[in-house]
Automatic annotation (TrEMBL):
Domain Zinc finger DksA/TraR C4-type: 55-89
Protein's UniProt keywords contain Metal-binding: yes
A GO MF term: zinc ion binding
Entry protein name: Prokaryotic dksA/traR C4-type zinc finger
Record-annotated membrane-spanning stretches: none
Keywords: Metal-binding, Zinc, Zinc-finger
InterPro entries cross-referenced by the UniProt entry: tRNA_methyltr_O, Znf_DskA_TraR
Superkingdom of this protein's organism: Bacteria
Pfam families: zf-dskA_traR
Length: 94
């Protein structure tokens, strides 16, 4: 019935029945004891390895810090990727 209601295929009677059912489900969730709705337990997780941290350098064009491994060289200076992409090497516009 849910598919018919959500798909716009349900009759008015089906829509009403579905609405009443949804209201009953909602009331049950709101009034049920916590133990019936929630399950809390300790779980074991395999954590991923710690991320490598890289030194930051300052972009010579916009002043923003950028990870050293992400920095590019533009005109002999460190540049962040957006500023490095603006570099035209003398061809076309900046």
């Amino acid at each position: 019935m849910r598919a018919r209601v959500l798909g716009g295929q349900a009759t008015p009677a089906e829509k009403e029945t579905y609405g009443r059912y949804q209201e009953q489900r909602l009331q049950h969730i709101l009034e049920a004891p916590e133990e019936e709705i929630f399950k809390a337990e300790h779980v074991e997780l395999a954590l991923p390895p710690k991320a490598r941290l890289f030194n930051s350098v300052t972009c010579s064009f916009c002043g923003e810090p950028v990870a050293e491994v992400r920095a590019r060289v533009r005109e002999g200076c460190f540049a962040c990727i957006p500023c490095a992409e603006k570099y035209s090497r003398g061809w076309g516009e900046d």
